[in-house]
């Protein structure tokens, strides 16, 4: 046993890795080791002899085991600090990606840029003048009710003289802002965030995005509008897309119209998502934009000579376009923070 003890200590000490250490453990304290056999044979010894031998054997086993433990800790440390374990799985890198509304905005910009429209930005905090009055929507005009507004508190100090401000309810205020500093002919689009104080449902949000369009020249007509919008919708949704122009009313256009895209009953577009949208809206069509020929009153607000210019304007809902493009049944998903939704894009 003494020989065995020395041999075991030497072998444990010289173990170069965990595998060699495990071999030493099996050899010296494993179930079939010499020591284990001796311990098992104790019961056959006469009592006196057993009393003399048993504690020695048990001590021997304990000290070999604690030496194994020490060596194991030592070898594990060198393993993590000194060696690279090529078999360990790597760390997966996650790449970010664009939000579906950003993708959609870029597609809209691409299409209109290809038709020579410039891209302009405007402020999200607007004055009452640009959001309403300059667009022929004076205070108390019933049309103000078309846009439920988030009004902002006036900055403290000069409440009396300061003009009322609000979160813009549409991108149309950029029409007059842009015309005040530019002379036609021009064609622009204005993508941006807009806000409305209204109840949400599957196709309405309080915070959404529009892309305003404005084309002004000497003889721009409704025919130009129809051509540009047809090109836009076909490039965006494919040549089979069915859409319609429907008469409507906006104080800042005359005549006014709205553009709807067909969800069900048509050829290409029909699918379960669209049927669900159509059912929740109780209509085969989804409205995507308001538009019309710029009202002369708006040109007047921009200080253009009366009657000198003609143009068309439109405001398209970006979320509505993305819902159609990606077959999204509910507008609220865009802002839901749900990674299962976001990661699909
Ligand atoms: C307007 O906002 C007008 N400024 C559009 C316009 C511009 C008309 C230029 C004439 C000339 P309307 O409120 O209908 O119109 O909104 C335009 C589009 O924004 C709608 O067709 C729809 O696609 C989208 N939209 C309107 N309200 C919401 C809402 N709550 N949630 C999501 N999208 C909306």
N-to-C series of helices and strands: HHHHHEEHEHEEHEEHEHEHH
E-strand count:
9
Bound molecules: adenosine-5'-[phenylalaninyl-phosphate]
How many separate structural domains?
A: 2
CA-based shape: elongated
Structure class? alpha+beta
User: Widest sheet: strand order?
Assistant: 1-4-5-9-8-7-6
Query: Kindly state the mean pLDDT as a whole number?
Result: 90
Task: Describe the sheet with the most strands.
Answer: 7 strands, mixed
User: How does CATH name the architecture of the largest domain?
Assistant: 2-Layer Sandwich
CATH homologous superfamily descriptor of the largest domain: Bira Bifunctional Protein, Domain 2
CATH class of the largest domain reads: Alpha Beta
User: Low-confidence spans: pLDDT under 50, at least 5 residues?
Assistant: none
Task: Determine the strand fraction and express it as a percent band.
Answer: 15-25%
The rounded distance between the terminal residues' Cα atoms is 71 Å
- Helical fraction equals 40-55%
Please give the count of helices.
Answer: 12
CATH topology of the largest domain: BirA Bifunctional Protein, domain 2
* Cα-atom radius of gyration: 39 Å
Assembly annotation: single chain
């Amino acid at each position: 046993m003494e020989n065995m003890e020395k041999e075991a200590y030497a072998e444990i000490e010289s173990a170069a890795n965990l595998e060699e250490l495990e071999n030493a453990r099996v050899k010296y304290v494993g179930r079939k080791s010499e020591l284990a056999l001796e311990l098992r044979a104790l019961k056959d010894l006469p009592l006196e002899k057993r009393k003399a031998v048993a504690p020695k054997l048990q001590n021997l086993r304990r000290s070999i085991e604690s030496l194994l433990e020490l060596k194991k800790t030592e070898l594990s440390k060198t393993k993590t600090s000194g060696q690279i374990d090529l078999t360990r799985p790597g760390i997966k890198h996650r790449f970010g990606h664009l939000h579906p509304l950003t993708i959609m905005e870029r597609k809209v910009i691409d299409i209109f840029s290809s038709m020579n429209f410039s891209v302009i930005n405007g402020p999200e905090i607007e004055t009452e003048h640009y959001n309403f009055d300059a667009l022929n929507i004076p205070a108390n005009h019933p049309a103000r009710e078309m846009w439920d507004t988030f009004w902002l508190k006036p900055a403290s100090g000069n409440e009396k003289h300061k003009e009322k401000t609000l979160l813009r309810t549409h991108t149309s205020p950029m029409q007059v802002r842009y015309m005040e500093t530019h002379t036609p002919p021009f064609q622009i689009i204005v993508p941006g965030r807009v806000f409305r104080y209204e109840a949400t449902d599957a196709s309405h949000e309080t915070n959404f995005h529009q892309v305003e369009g404005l084309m002004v020249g000497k003889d721009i007509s409704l025919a130009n509008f129809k051509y540009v919008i047809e090109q836009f919708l076909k490039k965006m949704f494919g040549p089979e897309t069915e859409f319609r122009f429907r008469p409507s009313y906006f104080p800042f256009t005359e005549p006014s119209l709205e553009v709807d895209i067909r969800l069900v009953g048509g050829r290409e577009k029909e699918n379960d998502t669209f049927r669900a949208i159509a059912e929740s809206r109780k209509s085969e069509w989804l409205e995507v934009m308001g538009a019309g020929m710029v009202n002369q009153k708006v040109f007047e607000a921009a200080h253009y000579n009366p009657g000198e210019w003609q143009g068309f304007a439109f405001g398209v809902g970006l979320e509505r376009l993305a819902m159609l493009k990606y077959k999204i049944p509910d507008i609220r998903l865009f802002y839901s923070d749900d990674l299962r939704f976001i990661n699909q894009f």
